[in-house]
Amino acid sequence: MALLELRIKNFVLVETAELNFGPGLNIITGETGAGKSLLVGAINLLIGTKTDWDLITGKDRSEIVGIFEGNEETEKLLEDHGIEHEGDIIIRRVLTPEQRKSRAFVNMTPVTQQFLRNLTSGLVDIHGQHEHQKLFDVSSHLEYLDKFAETVALKERVSRLFKEYQEILRKFEKEKREVENTEKLKDFLEYQLRELEDADLKEGEEEELEERIKVLSNLETLRGGIQEALSLIYEDDDSAYSRLTRVLNILRNLSGIDESLKSREITLEEVLIRIEELWRNLLDYSGKLHSEPEELDRLMERLSLINRLKEKYRTDVPGLLKLYNETLEKVRKIEVKDEFLRELETRVRDKYDELMDLARTLSKRRKGAAREFEDQVLKELSELGMQNAVFVVDFKEKEVDETGIDQVEFLISTNPGEEPKPLRKVASGGELSRIMLALKTVLSEIDDIPTLIFDEIDVGIGGRIAEAVGKKLASISKKGQVITITHLPQIAVYGSKHFVVEKIVSGGRTVTRVRELTGDERVKEIARMLAGEKITESSIVHARELLKNAGQM
User: What angle do CA 347, 353, 354 make, to 5 degrees?
Assistant: First the structure.
């Protein structure tokens, strides 16, 4: 699985170019300024990098095509997006400089740049000219270690759990703020509720109180009036009952003469019965016209309480009863929110404990792999001419986040007796290049990315170190395709394929041309890299010797 072919048309200085890459180590050389890095720029566009229009001149449409071998992962991604595929994957970028318009296609199907990035993330890893500066970014150290420790999936689980924890924590804090904001309201509502509960209001009570107070305030008047009424109705010798009784006797005598008066007699008998009932009723009423001591004061006080509540809440008794029920419901809701907050707090603690357990497991796995990682990197550095280097994976615990609880930093000492220090304080440009290559070599054992591209990995090195780098690149290329841009012959001779980038004048215009070198042409290019523009017989001999020693002749 690799980058099989790269075709370029009208891209910056490249009119046309076609590179058929092979397995193993593919070398790209050329004079400074010839445009070697344009090839890496073209590949970057194929894998979804944003177009830098300031670097693209001219009016002609640019087209870049890459043919890749796919794998199960890429095939599944294509199927999920309904893109037809049979074997190789053809990626095409079309750039229109005048309109600053860029389009991307996979197997003739239009796609987004993000889709390209997703598709090619498992196909190509580009290490650009300045990527070794990434080693100064401490967060990248954790990425390298996780790849080696094969804890990337575990870290992703920690990341998901951390996001879940953050989400529930945000919810808890929001609810907590709301509860805190309602505390004063809750105090007021509970006071209001107690006040209304203590009042124990009842529908119609106010009218009953007023009626009873009116009676108690006029007891003497009522007693006197009732007593007078009792006398007039029944008790006096000349009462209404006595007079009507005499009338009844008269009617009884007369009905013996005139039978028709019998009905009047019966009517009067009924009236007398009613009068007697009325007397007994008023007599009973009279017997109840009394009060307990201080009853009136108690009733007046009760009515005064009701009136105060009515005035305070500006409503009548039915309104007060409604207010009580509403207040009770509000208090219940706040209490439910309090209970929900306590439940949330428990969930936050449980989620945090779960997160910390997984983060500690991740940390343990990392620390367990770190010693082996150090040993392997030191072995690679030794083979790259840094025999005295001390390489340490330094752990510090931090507040848990999406990466776990580990802050990891690579420390190095390049001279005997020196304490390991952060890379940015110790390593030179050439040393950084070798450290990066050592890391890539170690990671290549576990990485399944089929194509590694190094754009001038040889910055700051030369001589026997360059030869060691060449051997190392050749070694990596046995596990997967490697494409390397270099200006050092000691590295170039290890390539199984060799391309040269040249700047020529065509039609009065300077353009960049790319061609594959074989046989004597390759010998001459190695000689040029050794001796400069003036190729001598000795440089030719030296070039052949280097190629022979590298197993390329």
Answer: 90
